[in-house]
Amino acid sequence: MAQQIQDLVESIQKEGIDKANEKAAKIISEANSKAKEIINQAKKDASKMLSDAEKEIALRDQSAQASLQQASRDVQLSLKKALTAQLDSLLVKKTGEAFTGDNLVKLIKSVISLDLTDAKTTELQLSEKEFKALAAELTKELGSEIKKGLEIKPVKNVNVGFRLAEKDGSGYFDFSDEAAAKLMTPFLSPAIAEIVFK
Question: Residue 124 belongs to a domain with what CATH number?
């Protein structure tokens, strides 16, 4: 009987150990399965975070590149505008220098000889400074036109160059430095732009 009790105790112990081992194996299996799920989810999360970070970096790079391109265009436009303003100013200055003294007298004589207007109804308008400096020479050079009725007058709204105006104020031909420069500017700007922005 003692043997039977002993066998029974051993059998109970063995069953308990077997059940405990089964339970432990099941717990370990579930833990391993759960660990694999957590690792897989962590890998997915890490992959998504990496993908999102790469997209954000690409977007920032694209934005930075677009900003850089815009800044480059702005600099080019500013440079073009500044150069054009400088060249226009230089053109007006150089044209103004050419529209003085003997050059101005020759230009006026050439324009008057084109018969753009009728001498009876026309006046030659000059700046007060040029009128004082050139009145005698212009009277000599344009004597025949003056006899026909051409008048030579100093005016305040002409700085350099001259205008041929109708006496009644109905119209005029502008041969001032600014008008001549404006006429030449469109022909010079493309060449300048090609040199600067080639």
Answer: 3.30.2320.30
Helix axes 177-197, 2-98, angle to 10 degrees: 140
133-145 tens-digit pLDDT: 888 888 888 888 8
Phi/psi at 155 (5° precision):
-135, 155
Same domain for 48 and 111, yes or no, is no
The single-letter DSSP state of residue 127 is -
Quote the crossing angle between the two packed helices 101-113 and 128-141, to the nearest 10°: 60
Backbone angles phi, psi at 165, to 5 degrees: -120, 150
Quick one: 56 and 30 in the same domain?
yes
pLDDT tens digits, 170-185: 888 888 877 877 777 6
Whether the predicted model's global pTM rises above the 0.90 cut: no
HSE of 45 in the Cβ direction (CA atoms, 13 Å)? 6
Burial of 136 (0-12, 13-18, 19+ CB in 10 A): exposed
Domain total in the chain: 2
